[in-house]
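Re: the request from the purification team.
They wanted to know what the chain is likely to look like in 3D before they choose a buffer screen. I agreed to run a prediction and write the result into the notebook, where they can find it.
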Amino acid sequence: MPTPFFLGTASWTFPDWRSVFYPDGLADKDRLAWYATQCNSVEVNTSFYGLPAPSTLVQWVESVPPGFTFSLKAPKLITHERRLVDCRQESLAFLDVLRSLGDALAPGLLQFPPSFTRAREGRILANYLDWLAGELDGLPLTVEVRSSDLMTPAFASFLVERGMTLAVVERTGTDDFYPAWEASAAPYLFVRLIGNDSEPPNNDRDLQRPQEEILDLWAARIADLLKKGVPVYSYTHNTLEGHSPASVRRLRARIHARFPLADWSPEMVATGSDDPTSAGQLALF
């Protein structure tokens, strides 16, 4: 069986993608179904603002072919507002949403702001993760930190010991943390290719700042992991080069040159759903 490899973008609904990624005339409700013919996974940001309704989850899963996965970000209420204090009920609700995705589940993402530090909130974080580990029951969860005192090999190992992994982020101005992730012996890689988000491009329609060296570096790393049988989840943001669908194609081609990848070209799944609740959730992207 091929090593699982999931490659996609950060969400699927950008107005600038009309006519350059999505075909002219494609209805908004059909964007996910079309996206899933081009990529086999997506990072879902709408859950950061509020957990999707059950009807939305059903629509998502019914809109994609078998083998497609969703990575949902934990609500900001947990990580940014309450900062892990008095949020166990909300955390369990997030885990329930992850479970409901079934085979369409990619690792959930627990993302912390730069102001969340080990020096100030380390004990709160350790206690929360100890508790959360007992609730996962095999659910894959990755943790993104942006404070330098948490971006350490010790914290990466701490997560692996509790059934989680550290998210690796390619961001301008941030140190390369891949070697520390590698040393932690994590069971899979979850990488977010963000680039220079402090100076976003003018639009999301085309490549405005090609990142050849970054793509070559990650293609080599990912191909090496796939050869070793390590699953990879990789999500590319528009800020990396200006148009993430093109960046995904460019990265995939580089990986394929080093490690042959199975083709991903399923037929578009017909949905026919006009549920206004689901449409509203999709519009949050």
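For the purification team: The chain has eleven helices and nine strands.
Please add any questions underneath this entry.
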